[in-house]
Amino acid sequence: MGDEQLAAPGALECVRTFVNTRDLELRTDTLAAWLAPHHPVAGDLERAAALREALRAMLLANATGETPAAAPLAVVEDAGRRALLRFDGVRLVPAATGVDGALGELLAVVALAQADGTWARLKACPGENCQWALYDLTRSRTRTWCAAAKCGARTRSRAYRRRVSQAP
């Protein structure tokens, strides 16, 4: 399945792309390249990685229907404080510059998406080694997997093997 079929609308695509700077399946991480135009300094990469994983946890919660844990929410809150988010009369904007400002712009997009209802459609595949961010375009809003034939099939197969091994 092409990544374009998982793309989010408008600015929300930036959040999805940010989360997908880490590919768990391929074991690659392009966060440093994402940060480069923002002139990172000491500590920026670690804070950005923490925010990325906090957003991923929130997207997993969107996919599973569970409430996100407190720790990821605290990371998001801290990033918002560091970005000095403020309302300019039209929208949230970061007063900070550099990496904190760039992360603040992502958080402003998240806030807008939560307000307009598109946030719940941005999800992370709950596949054990996947967790790829995707946008649910289904009418029923029930898409869970990045690809049912890949992650969905793997998970169903593992569950089946577990049930069979536990049968008397």
Could you explain the architecture of this structure?
- This protein has six helices and six strands; from the N terminus they run αββαααββαββα.
- Helix 3 (about 45-65) crosses helix 4 (about 70-85) and helix 4 (about 70-85) crosses helix 5.
- With about 170 residues, it is mostly helical.
- It has one domain: Jann2411-like fold (Orthogonal Bundle).
- It is about 50% helix and about 10% strand.
- Strand 3 and strand 4 (about 90-95) form a beta hairpin.
- It is globular and about 60 Å long.
- The protein starts with 11 loop residues before the first helix and ends with a helix.
- The strands form three sheets. It has a two-stranded antiparallel ribbon with strand order 1-2. A two-stranded antiparallel sheet has the order 3-4. Strands 5-6 form a two-stranded antiparallel sheet.
- The protein has helices at about 10-20, 30-35, 45-65, 70-85, 100-115, 150-165, and strands at about 20-25, 30, 85, 90-95, 120-125, 135.
